[in-house]
Amino acid sequence: MLNPIVQDVLRHEGVVTIISEASNGYHVVNTWNSYMRAVDDTLYAPAAGMHSLEADIEENPHVLLTLGTREVEGLKGPGTGFHIQGNASFLTTGPLFEQMKAEYPFLSRVLKIDVTQVDQKI
User: Fold this and answer.
1) Can you name the CATH fold of 4-120?
2) Containing H/E element for 30?
3) Global pTM?
4) Which residues form the Pyridoxamine 5'-phosphate oxidase N-terminal domain (predicted)?
């Protein structure tokens, strides 16, 4: 699902928007493409805040991400973007947590998103 074009987008800077929904409404948090790690069909991001997102996914783990960059050729020219759906959780231990903590000392958790759908939009 995380095809080579998505991988290429993650190598260029841009904003990643993560949208969650629970009984108290929608919440939106942002991070940077360069913070995201893709392993197979799973995305990981360092989390220092994201407390509303964490509360939401306890009730409803489904999230929607948007990401893109002007630096990768899209469907109609320069620039491309994606909507990515998945199920989120947070890691606080383990080898991947330790690896990301070494790279991003500010994190308190690692956001893990098991990707279920990827749609290229532009």
Assistant:
1) Pnp Oxidase; Chain A (2.30.110)
2) strand 25-32
3) 0.95
4) 6-120
